[in-house]
Design goal:
The complex is a heterodimer of chains A (116) and B (116). With 116 residues, chain A is mainly β. Helix content of chain A is 0%, strand content 53%. Chain A has no helices and eleven strands. In chain A, the strands form two sheets. In chain A, strands 2, 4, 5, 6, 9, 10 and 11 form a seven-stranded mixed beta sheet that branches. Chain A has a four-stranded antiparallel beta sheet with strand order 1-3-8-7, with no helix packed on it. Chain A is globular and about 40 Å long. Chain B is an all-beta fold and 116 residues long. In chain B, 0% of the residues lie in helices and 50% in strands. In chain B, strands 2, 5, 6, 10, 11 and 12 form a six-stranded mixed beta sheet that branches. A four-stranded antiparallel beta sheet of chain B has the order 3-9-8-7, with no helix packed on it. In chain B, strands 1-4 form a two-stranded antiparallel sheet. In chain B, a hairpin with a 6-residue loop joins strand 5 and strand 6. Classes of the chains: A mainly beta (116), B mainly beta (116). Chains A and B meet through strand 5, strand 9 and strand 10 of A and strand 5, strand 6 and strand 11 of B.
Chain lengths: 116, 116
């Protein structure tokens, strides 16, 4: 299957600081990437859809000023958690979608964020 | 309303037996895609199999097959000859529309444990 990388895999930060997570599609160009959040023992919840060269589309209830998404190239999308709080601690997973049918999404390995 | 329902929080199966993981969905869109993903303890989401709403035949990928019953709105995953490495969380997901990269909605998942 296709390879999507995420960096860092784990990060611990202090409250009030910002953290940037990178998502890279390594072997195909992805016009569209997605950012998900997963709480322990729960399913994935879509946060936003990241489109190359345009603004991200956020799901209802997700603060766009807190979770900044930038999709500057066809292989890289970044998620920045600004002014992090302990409740932002979670597992963040990105995915990259192929630009041809069936448009399956390939997921990165995830980033575990802990805010102290 | 829940769009994807996985009614089995946990399944326990003996090695080498076949296992069926249930998934039902709800949509009024005639065009949709159904996906199954595997999430081992490492956290990475692994794409297993895809079924389009207009596909006439059930999808198969190696030991994985999808039992697609459109009238019943079910898309059960069948794993033949289970292996210890199949132990993981399994998520069913749906994408409404079949053209272009669209967001996925995930079910709550089923934790599959393969016993030796």
């Amino acid at each position: 299957g296709a390879v999507v990388s995420q960096h860092p895999s784990r990060v611990i930060c202090k409250s009030g600081t910002s953290v940037k997570i990178e998502c890279r599609s390594l072997d195909f160009q992805a016009t569209t990437m997605f950012w998900y959040r997963q709480f322990p023992k729960q399913s994935l919840m879509l946060m936003a859809t990241s489109n190359e060269g345009s603004k991200a589309t956020y799901e209802q209830g997700v603060e766009k000023d807190k979770f900044l998404i930038n999709h500057a190239s066809l292989t890289l999308s970044t998620l920045t958690v600004t002014s992090a709080h302990p409740e932002d601690s979670s597992f963040y997973i990105c995915s990259a979608s192929r630009d041809r049918g069936p448009y399956e999404q390939y997921f990165g390995p995830g980033t575990r964020l802990t805010v102290t | 309303a829940q769009k994807i329902t996985q009614t089995q929080p946990g399944m326990f199966v003996q090695e080498k037996e076949a296992v069926t993981l249930d998934c039902t969905y709800d949509t009024s869109d005639p065009s949709y895609g159904l996906f199954w993903y595997k999430q081992p303890s490492s956290g990475e989401m692994i794409f297993l199999i895809y079924q389009g709403s207009y596909d006439q035949q059930n999808a198969t990928e190696g030991r994985y097959s999808l039992n697609f019953q459109k009238a019943r709105k079910s898309a059960n995953l069948v794993i033949s000859a289970s292996q210890l490495g199949d132990s993981a969380m399994y998520f069913c997901a749906m994408r409404e529309g079949i053209q272009g990269a669209q967001k996925l909605v995930f079910g709550q998942g089923t934790r599959l444990t393969i016993n030796p």
